[in-house]
Amino acid sequence: MSQQQPRFVSAHGGHSGQFCLHARDTLAEMVEEYARQGFSWVGLTEHMPPTEDAFLYPDEREAGLTARYLQDQFSRYVDTARQLQQEYRDRLTLFVGMETEYYPGSLDFAKQLRTEFGLDYLVGSVHHVDGRCFDFSLADYQDAFDQHGGYEPLYCAYFDAQLAMINELQPEVVGHFDLIRLHDHDYPTRLQCPAVEQRIRRNLHRISELGLILDYNARALFKGAQEPYVSVPVLHHALQLGIDLLPGDDSHGVDSVGAHLATVIALLQEAGYHCQWRCPAAPQ
């Protein structure tokens, strides 16, 4: 008799077009799709709003939005998510979370938001290095590459920023750990650079010490990458340290709800992970 397959969950439940310009569909439509697919639980993780206009994403700036508007919108997101949490309580367990940022002033603001809105948990992510966004577009990544003078110093700066975020926020889930490889076709070589590998091991040890969970993020596969975040060497070291992992679809619309989760769960099983999901938040 075959073992029962692990239930679908998503600790990095992604973003809706209702509250994020680079996503699509309403949050309710996305939650309904999670329920239709039979997810056991899902964490809703819209982006935290920017602290000031200087940290608007490019599409937000082009749309004429302001940090104040997005801060008000975040309040509407939490209200909507809490309503859905109650409406779906008999069909799907929802947790109301937030994906954080890392740039000057963001960590204190993230802690403030967590307290003010009573968020169930945080996904701690890094999309900026030295205050510069690197993952919104290839051009942004190239700018960050140029600013740091190459891949290795860029990777080192990224993992240093990630450690600072981990130590300061201690988020229940560390989001897409090796996102910095996003536009680097030769990232396996980069991950083996001694200075980079040392930082990866250092950060994973800190995650282990704090008992945090690692996001095993399927979004990379949806965008055509060969493997999820995290890559195989990072996954193996995390498993050696006994770090818990959780699948995340990092969905950006109904079309990516649950996308490639079966694949990432199979990869975890092949790597020897038990796939007994640890919830990042207390039951509601």
Automatic annotation (TrEMBL):
Which keywords does the record carry? Amino-acid biosynthesis, Histidine biosynthesis, Hydrolase
Per the record, its GO cellular-component terms are: cytoplasm
Q: What catalytic activity does the UniProt entry give for this protein? A: L-histidinol phosphate + H2O = L-histidinol + phosphate
* PANTHER family found in the cross-reference section: HISTIDINOL PHOSPHATASE-RELATED, HISTIDINOL-PHOSPHATASE
Task: Establish whether keyword Amino-acid biosynthesis is in the entry.
Answer: yes
Known EC number(s)?
3.1.3.15
One annotated GO biological process: L-histidine biosynthetic process
Where does the PHP domain lie? 15-217
Protein's recorded name: Histidinol-phosphatase
Top enzyme class, one word, equals: hydrolase
Q: Name one GO molecular function term.
A: histidinol-phosphatase activity
